[in-house]
Amino acid sequence: MDVRSQVSMLFHLDKCIGCHTCSIACKNIWTDRKGAEYMWWNNVETKPGTGYPTKWEDQDIYKGGWEKKEGAGAIELKGAGKFKGLKNIFHNPHLPIMDDYYEPWTYKYSNLIESPAQDDQPTARPVSLVTGKPIDIKAGPNWDDDLSGSPDYARKDPNLENLSPAERDAMFQLEQMAFFYLPRICNHCLNPACVASCPSGAIYKRGEDGIVLINQKVCRAWRMCITACPYKKTYYNWSTGKSEKCILCYPRLEAGVAPACMHSCVGRIRYLGVMLYDADKIEEVASADEKNLVDSQLDIILDPNDPEVIEAAKANGIADSTIHSAQYSPVYKFVKEWGLALPLHPEFRTLPMLFYVPPLLPVMASLSTVKNKAQNDKLDPIAKKWDDDWLYDTSTDELWGTIDDARFPLQYMANLFSAGDTEKVSIILKKMMAVRIHRRGVTVGDLGDEKVNGALSDAGLTAEEADAIYYLTSLAKFDDRFVIPPAHREQAIEMLEDTADVKGSSGFGFTERPSRGI
Fold first, then answer.
1. DSSP states of 493-515 as a string?
2. Is residue 264 part of a domain?
3. How far is CA 20 from the centre of its chain?
4. For residue 472, what is the DSSP state?
5. What backbone torsions phi and psi does residue 354 show, to the nearest 5 degrees?
6. Rg (Cα) of the chain, in Å, rounded?
7. pLDDT tens string 237-258
8. Domain count of the chain?
9. In 132, 283, 358, 513, which residue has its Cα 20 to 30 A from 425's Cα atom?
10. Taken in order 388, 390, 391, 395, is the CA torsion positive or negative?
């Protein structure tokens, strides 16, 4: 058992309000530079929608992630690797182009200030930040925000492919209501395709916390990492000629401060903590059959309170403070203890370490089948445009409708978070519903003990667990949401001292031994 530590993240989608404060915080700190104008290391997408860059989930276009050939035991990179990379090293047809992101622009505000007196109102013309020439704005990083571009964006979401026509049509008849927000950052995967694809070895995964970084001195701009990352969270800086990506604000983490996107989150949807995992099982888990991918990934995460795990972690050099942080990790509670979170697109086989609590969405509404034509004729003229087989219903006999009739199809959620397995999403939504029913019973007391206890029993929860979930979801303080292990700088200095006498090396890639003062 090769126990290692990983700083992991969790986003609670039921709480995201789509304000983009996280994106702006990240942009102001890390990508407000020439060549990085189009980069959004953190972005918030509206689902359904094609996202940023356009259709990033469609690996038939971008060839990202890993794939398992039929009948083969091992996996291989889908669009990169030794032979594929060599073949496309000077012409890579699977790279997203600038238009897939958007061409960044500013406005020529001097026109407003310096314009001479004239009959017409002067305007600030949009100017490209890449070429400096005037452009016609055609897209942006959140162009389809709140489904504002539904005909061109939302209906082309790759996750809609295996939904029935009735389910798909029902979603867009009420497009003002049938959407949710999906914030994304680098997943800092356990099996990162970007690391495996880099011909120059510039991308690496830090041993102490699992953060994936790019050595700017070693990067040679082959850009295989951009192709290989199925989440398209590695970017090319056209000014420096280097690849860049989210670094999880590791200088802040080392100082005990939450990453900028998480610190600034208005909805408090973000959680961060350490999880321990067995590195010996990475290849086995990444090569699992698609139906077992989620369970296999969750199984690789170890119990930080298990004496055997603790002993193996200490033997592997993991500090006591890191183990202690893992024991109080909010991410571990959501993912393993309560079983409320899933990875994004596990079928990409990168074993992402960013987990999502699926949105339950407003609950007093459901989609039901229309029984007869007479009932359909009662609808208003606008509603008559709806599919004859579906009716949007807000008059439920119960306070909450059933999970299976939720207005957002379970299959769509499963396509995002469980490789198509609707049962895994259904279990999580039932638990979230049970917590709401339990808290209604506590605060209002109008549902009766039988209904409350029945909901908890059906979801496999106790009242104590429901209260703990409610607290961490709704009332958690800053230190409850971000359990950050202290950085052990003394170990880095010791390593430098141990390697300082080795010819041509002083550790960590330095050519000279740094002073203790840095």
1. HHHHHHHTTSTT--STT-SSPPP
2. no
3. 14
4. I
5. -115, 120
6. 25
7. 999 999 999 999 999 999 999 9
8. 3
9. 283
10. positive
